[in-house]
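Subject: for your reference before the review

Hello V.,

The reviewers asked for a structural picture of the protein, and I figured it would be easier to keep everything in one thread rather than splitting it across files. Below is the amino acid sequence we used in the manuscript, unchanged from the supplementary table.
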Amino acid sequence: MLTIEEITNVNKLPELEEVWKKILDLSKCKNLFLTYEWISVWLNHFWKDKPILFLLIKNEKGPVGLAPLLVDREKEVLVFPVNGHTYRPNLIFGGDHEEFLKIILAHLRERDRRVNLCLYEVELDSFLVKTLPNVARECRIVTVFKEVSSSPFLSINTDWESFLKSKSKHFREEQKRKVNKMRKTGQLDFVKVSNPDQIREGMRDILSIERNSWKEKEGTSFTAVPGLQEFYLDVGETFARKHCLCTYLVYLNSVPIAHLFGIAYENRYYALKTSYDESYKELSPGVVLFTYALQDIFKSGLKEFDFLGVESRWKNEIASDTRNLVNIFVYPKSISHFFVGYLENTIKPLMREKAPFVLNLKKRFQRSLENEKRKEAS
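And here is what came back from the structure prediction:
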């Protein structure tokens, strides 16, 4: 029989560290952003002094599952710990997925019959997406799934040379040409940052790159967003101690010009953030950086390079596939919620299959409205 223990005090989470790891090891849904280390650092920087509702699921032998939920009081909903700096949230458990979901939803309904969950950026092929519709019907709640984006990744099942041979001649020649062009410009050096004693010096150079990147003008760089450099420094130090940090820098004449801040976990490389110094743009520092980083990652024995974020031309040139992500909304059963669910889960998928031009027209109309608003604002 399954039971639930509520954890509402964030200071109690360190007591769960070992149990958390055991549960994650049993889980079929396992990624960097579900680890104790990642979520505890994230909470400390992005959810400080805000309420949590972690549900620890137990059987007669002990803890077997964990639902890491946060209480968003402004919107009166429960959410996963996710924002623009953390991805792919989920529930953590092995075993019978339906049984776990049933007890979680029953517990939440017992706490508050107006149970509302907004679970953002869940992988479309995860057990949660596959299992929730059936459980929801039994629990008399409404679920709405909205596909929001696709995130590219590269499966690594060959050596670096074989991978290059699988790409077009133009791709290979462009990579070689751009690396050679930078080498002719000056002394080119590559540095891999992975040890705890390297991270502070490495972060100093990363911040220099971010400060001179296009992201600084857009207000999205480590140095432009308050608290962001402290978060990534904390992440770097935490995972360096776990021997998971895997960050790359490119130097030209001893000047840092490009970085890839990433972590290797469970045979997958997570490319968390990357940027380059805008003044070196003509030398294609991003291409040179990824050529070096990918070669090293291929040699390391990792099985996947996860770009994270949304699709783009340069990512798709390297990637082998994409992961589709969905937002999940869980509502109490009502007439209005029933129609919302029917529209999103039945009508829109049917239109995408049978009449995609209608949805395309809607998107164009929305874009034109946004353009008009921007013109009026300027």
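For the response letter, the relevant points are probably these. The longest strand covers residues 141-155. The domain at 3-151+323-333 is CATH 3.40.630.30 (Aminopeptidase).

Happy to draft the paragraph if you're swamped.

O.
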